[in-house]
Each structure stands twice: as C-alpha cells, then as structure tokens.
Amino acid sequence: MAHFTSLDELSTHEIERLIGRGLQLKQGAPVQPLPTKTVANLFFEHSTRTKCSFDMAEHHLGLHILPFETATSSVQKGETLLDTCKTLQAIGVDALVIRHGETGYYEQLQQQLSIPIINAGDGSGQHPSQSLLDLMTMYEAYGHVTGKTIVICGDLRHSRVARSNTQVLQRLGATVIGSGPREWFDETMGIAYRKMDEAVATSDIIMLLRVQHERHVDDYPFATEAYHERYGLTEKRMKWIRPDAIVLHPAPVNRGVEIAEALVEHPQSRIFDQMTNGVFARMAILERAFETSTTKETR
C-alpha cells in the first residue's frame, strides 16, 4: 500500500522516479492493466482538470471506477468522511482519490484505513498530484529544475498549489520567489517577495495562480482590471521575460485577470501542456499505489 498525500513524504529519488515514469507514459511506454482493481473518486469540492484527469488516468490503466457523487451520498445525512471511506473499503474498493475542503483531512484516514489514499487537494494544505504534473512540465522543458528560479504569482496565502510546489522545488534545488498582492503573501512559506515587474524579468519559470475567492473571508479587494495591471502577466510584461522562460498556471484560468487573453496560448505558455501531463502524472501515482511490476521495474 502506498498513500500519496504530500510530496514531503517522498524522497527526492522517488519524486524524480514518478516524474520519469510520467514522461515515459506520455511517450507511449507500455502499461500493465489493472482490471481487477476498483477506485472511487470522492470530490467534495468542485473540480474539472483534477477529477477528469484522474478519471482518464484510471481509464488508461484499465481500473474499474466506482461511481460516487457527494450530493447523493450519505454525507448529506451527516455521515463522516471516515465512515464514508470505511464503507467503501468494506465493500471492496481498493483505493480512494479524495479532494476535501479540510486541510489535512487524510491524517486520520491513513491511521484508520488499509487501502491507499490519494490526496487530490486538501483545503489550503497540499495538492501533490498538481505539483507532480507541474514538475513533469518543467522537466520536459529543461530536463531538471536545479538552479532554476521560479516565481509563484498571486494568491499565495490561500493556495495549496503554491505550498506544495514551493516545498518540493526547494528540495530539488530550485530557487522559489513570490509575487502578487503583499496582503496575500505568506511569510511562513520561507521565500522572498519580489515586485511583479522584477520577478517576471528575472525568472525561468513564471507560475500564475487563480485568486481563491472561495477561501477569502473578506471581500475581494481588487477590480479585475486593477489586479491584472498590477499583478497579472500583461502583454507588456510578457515582452520582458527571458526567451527560454515558460509560463505555467494550475487553472482554471481567469483570462484578463492573472494572464492576458492573448497570452494563454502564447508559444512560451505551457498551460495546456500541464493539463495533458496531468493524466500521465496521475497514471504514475496510481501505478505506485498498486505497486505494479511496471513501477517496480523503473525503480
């Protein structure tokens, strides 16, 4: 059994092995089907990319997907997440992919369940599968991240993507800086703050973040146009970036807010490549969860 709840729990060797396996799968490496295994996807928060790419990854691996809808489940009757998961384990589910609004929800489940838990996002905590696909995209562009400078721009305080990526990138030898509204900068992440103009011009990788409206207790303090001009990747700022720099965004993208409309499909943008890579990264995660012979051979 191999949980996948935070990249902090994996060695750098294991992380790079998963990146390599994802890239192999993208290039057409053979897959050992898993038709005898059943997985349930429990998404208690809205999702398009993460849920659909897990669905697609499971399809490519030949897994049986047990349908689960939170709106029609016994959660609506007051059943706890733990009891829901124990029920699914009891009826024969072999692994659970879970997105939940509670930060660290998986800690109790790891102690109580005997099947793999794959964290598809927990509150403002971690988003390890997103970090893995982001790393895949970076390795695809450069072959490594050692010595690279990555700026993460936007709503850092509320972003599990920013938190997961910062930790793993630093472990892999990259320099991470932050930019965006100062009031949304998180000092506890242990990174330096740079103004947007400087950050964009001096970074190898520019990672833009969506404003996490659903996690703000106060009203959104910026008009769309003002945010874009002050903290977004405008067409003017795009002219300042390095010729070999790449632009990332975990999406959903708010065109004209975090990034200018015309730049989403810019040649240096890798936003849709990230989405493609999400399927193969999640295939690698699922293979690891079931410890197939394919993954053992690539260790």
Please count the beta strands (DSSP E, at least 2 residues each). Answer: 9
Helix content: 25-40%
Strand composition percent: 5-15%
- Kindly, what is the distance between the CA atoms of the first and last residues, rounded to a whole number of angstroms? 16 Å
Uncertain spans: 292-299
CATH topology assignment of the largest domain: Rossmann fold
Name the CATH architecture of the largest domain: 3-Layer(aba) Sandwich
Structural class: alpha/beta
Major sheet details? 5 strands, parallel
Shape: globular
Order of helices and strands: HEHEHEHEHEHEEHEHHEHH
Radius of gyration (Å): 19 Å
Q: What value does the average pLDDT take? A: 92
- Specify the CATH homologous superfamily of the largest domain: Aspartate/ornithine carbamoyltransferase
Whole-number tally of structural domains: 2
CATH class of the largest domain: Alpha Beta
Descriptive report:
This protein is of the alpha/beta class and 299 residues long. It has two domains: 7-126 and 276-297, Aspartate/ornithine carbamoyltransferase (Rossmann fold, 3-Layer(aba) Sandwich); 128-275, Rossmann fold. The chain is 38% helix and 13% strand. The chain has eleven helices and nine strands. The strands form two sheets. It has a five-stranded parallel β-sheet, with helices on both faces. Helix 4 (106-112) links the parallel strand 3 and strand 4. The longest helix has 20 residues, at 271-290. It is globular. The model is unreliable at 292-299 (pLDDT under 50).
